[in-house]
Amino acid sequence: MIVQRLRVQSFRRFAEAELEPRPGFNLVTGDNGSGKTSLLEALHLLAHGRSFRGRVRDGLVRQGEQALSVYVEWQAGSGPAHRAGLRHSGGDWDARLDGAAVGHLGELCEALAVVSFEPGSHALIDGSSEGRRRYLDWGLFHVERADRGGDFLLQWRRHARALKQRNALLRQRRVDAQLDAWEHELAQAGEALCAQREAHVARLQPHLEAMIAALLPGAGSARLELLPGWRRQELSLADALLLARDRDLVQGHTSVGPHRADLRLELRDLPGRDGLSRGQAKLAALALLLAQAAYLAGQDGHWPVLQLDDLASELDRPHQRRVLQALHASGAQVFVTGTEPPAVLRELDLPVAMFHVEHGSVARLCA
Ligand SMILES: Nc1ncnc2c1ncn2[C@@H]1O[C@H](COP(=O)(O)OP(=O)(O)OP(=O)(O)O)[C@@H](O)[C@H]1O
């Protein structure tokens, strides 16, 4: 995917700003607080329905304004050009995709695939399991799309609804036919969700091995494993839910199932996730993100847009070089930010479109 235009209004410090990126590398420089990350956040927001720094209501709307706007034009492979706009107040939103009103933000997410790597991305390795489930489900959401005959989103929504209903009944201490019915629904949707996640993890494996070899060769071989959220080798989800019922009634929520799933990444020559340095955790997280992007590229015939915020932070030069070489080899459109142009980018002499953010506006710099 190639983003051809990004326009933001009332977004963090920007009253209005516009960027016309190029295919390949786009470098965005500027002082601390100038708004570099905000530009990446804007694209991420349109593609994920939230920023990697939080939701719209967490301060994305420019102080004193009612709502932010993001407008993007892009091309997916050799297909037609697309355009999408989102106006969001933190509560209400209104969006259009190719001129038609959008009923669910998932429609924008489905149309525009963006993978972002930012200073907090190490949490994909050493943070809570929620981030890893979101990572996995984002990949499935794109691969198992309804327009390709997939039903991941359908199962995901079914599961979320059944889980909410079961939790509500647990809190009311209601052990009746309704609880049986929602548990049955939860078990069916949960088994389907888990089977899709498991297959996806297996398909990611070779891409992950290649990315770890490219970015973190000292790690040795890599293995990704799904922890399903219940003792799936021994029990069906229906049985696990039934067995957990008494405890769940006391706690008032469901303690087993795919909403508790996790991913385990094993790197043969490095310690477990708690023993990794911050830089190693970042590289392992980037390998996970790029493995998923590479898998998607294989399915779609074109790469998602890749965004790397503050690449130089915490990565030494040899590793920055490895990252940039891998990204260049992919042919993807890449956004990189930094207070300075990363020295490695100059050393590698890669073609780069350069932009500078200052005083609330973005200027294209000549190479
Ligand atoms: N809701 C808001 N309204 C107005 N200004 C905001 C709002 N939220 C954030 N800002 C300002 O917008 C800027 C956001 O900067 P951003 O994080 O995008 O900068 P950056 O160039 O990536 O910085 P750094 O190099 O320090 O990471 C900061 O100056 C911040 O004070």
TrEMBL record:
SUPFAM superfamilies: P-loop containing nucleoside triphosphate hydrolases. Keywords: ATP-binding, Cytoplasm, DNA damage, DNA repair, DNA replication, DNA-binding, Nucleotide-binding, SOS response. Residues 3-360 form the RecF/RecN/SMC N-terminal domain. GO terms for biological process: DNA replication; DNA synthesis involved in DNA repair; double-strand break repair; SOS response. One of its GO terms (molecular function) is ATP binding. Transmembrane segments: none annotated. The keyword Transmembrane does not apply. ATP binds at G30, D31, N32, G33, S34, G35, K36, T37. It is found in: Cytoplasm. One of its GO terms (cellular component) is cytoplasm. The RecF protein is involved in DNA metabolism; it is required for DNA replication and normal SOS inducibility. RecF binds preferentially to single-stranded, linear DNA. It also seems to bind ATP. Belongs to the RecF family. This is DNA replication and repair protein RecF. The gene is recF.
